[in-house]
Amino acid sequence: MTDAELVLRSTRVVTPEGTRAASVAVADGTITAVTAHDAPVPDGARLEDLGDDVLLPGLVDTHVHVNDPGRTEWEGFRTATRAAAAGGITTLIDMPLNSLPPTTTVGHLRAKRRVAAGKAHIDVGFWGGALPDNVRDLRPLHEAGVFGFKAFLSPSGVAEFPHLGQEQLARSLEEIAAFDGLLTVHAEDPRHLAAAPQRGGPRYADFLASRPRRAEDTAIAHLVDLARRLDARVHVLHLSSGDALPVIAAAKADGVRVTVETCPHYLTLTAEEIPDGASEFKCCPPIREAANRDLLWQALADGTIDCVVTDHSPSTADLKTDDFSTAWGGISGLQLSLPAVWTEARARGHGLEDVVRWMAAHTARLAGLGTRKGAVAPGHDADFAVLAPDETFTVDPAALQHRNRVTAYAGRTLHGVVRSTWLRGRRVMAGGEFTEPKGRLLTRSHGHRHPRGRTGTP
Ligand SMILES: [Zn+2]
């Protein structure tokens, strides 16, 4: 083993076994040991004493739309990864759509990787896309290192990424199951969306009525049935409807390989407080009522929901019009996801260990990165977020790093200031200042097979 080059010391280190005072030794970008707080610093190693600031594993955000190349006026690798680093995120997996081209062939994946190279402040991996006409591209994409695939069951919002009909979904999932890949799904049933009242205009209540819970509930029930029948691995993206939880819980109890994520905005914001015309709050599925939010928190607590990811999906400000039916749907969450979730989590009696489980450990496992990312433990990459959990700040859009400073959190006072972010033992962000981009482009590790069973976690 290489001698430690760096030791990070804190009275509060969040490890998989709990939070304790510890010293974390790092060599060659990897954690080599987690020892007693007062363990002697090895000769030649630099000590970084963090005092009472909390040392967390760097967060792993598996749902980010970087939109690069093609829609770089919306976002890009430089700005997205800076925002992520500012928010304590050290790994992101980029969604296959909203960039041009979308990541739906190996050639397109190469184009993405070329564009991202040298720009990423944190580590970046890629999801592939499952379209009606690219079933033959799925295995080559898998072999080229995408972490899994994304599909829509209803219109995606961009013409170049059409959704799958029921038979197309079955065909794609069968193909993906043949190599034990993962299909992640935007699950809203288009028939229920079409049947809902589409009034348009600036009223949030009208927008909410246009994306009813039963659209999610029906699509998820269908997806779970298919996963059960094909013994396939599926992941429900951005769950908003609490009414879908019993079906998911029952499927997990039966050993169906389904995992679920939700997002900071569903956990921290409510329909009741969204002003009319405020389309910075628009996303699909929508932010629902306070009582629905309570169901999501309960499901996080009992393990029915596995992870929390941002679904960072920005656009230019002009697309955020005051008509909810035509405004771009997407909320930019990279920089604020940790403080937003932590603020609500602490108020509900959860600890940082819970937040780390939802936003680092389980997301890392979802992407098959669980042995390298998402934990302060020997053998893992020395990726960290240093957090002052009791400090507060008020969200100022001007302080955001993503390209278009539109935010649903403006003016909110949040708990948790990210003091610094570390990638493989190097500080990449401190106090809002960034080093040169040193992030790597990640590929799914070959030969990794996901365990079967009824654990209910990714
Ligand atoms: Zn998304």
Secondary-structure map:
Blueprint: E1 6-15, E2 18-27, E3 30-36, E4 46-49, E5 54-57, E6 59-64, H1 77-86, E7 89-94, H2 106-116, E8 123-126, E9 128-129, H3 135-143, E10 149-152, H4 166-178, E11 182-186, H5 190-195, H6 204-210, H7 213-230, E12 233-236, H8 245-253, E13 258-262, H9 264-268, H10 290-302, E14 307-308, H11 337-347, H12 352-366, E15 384-394, E16 413-423, E17 426-430, E18 433-434
Parallel strand pairs: 1-4, 1-5, 6-7, 7-8, 9-10, 10-11, 11-12, 12-13, 13-14
Antiparallel strand pairs: 1-2, 2-3, 5-15, 15-16, 16-17, 17-18
Helix pairs in contact: 7-8, 11-12
The structure holds zinc ion.
Backbone CA Rg: 21 Å
Tell me the β content.
Answer: 15-25%
Kindly report how far apart the N and C termini lie.
31 Å
Question: What is the succession of H and E elements?
Answer: EEEEEEHEHEEHEHEHHHEHEHHEHHEEEE
Q: What oligomeric state is this? A: single chain
**Compounds present?**
zinc ion
Number of domains: 2
Structural class: alpha/beta
Helical stretch tally? 12
Find the CATH topology of the largest domain.
Answer: TIM Barrel
Number of strands: 18
Largest sheet: 9 strands, mixed
- CATH architectural label of the largest domain: Alpha-Beta Barrel
CATH class of the largest domain: Alpha Beta
The CATH homologous superfamily name of the largest domain equals Metal-dependent hydrolases
The parts where pLDDT drops under 50 for at least 5 residues are: 447-458
Helix content: 25-40%
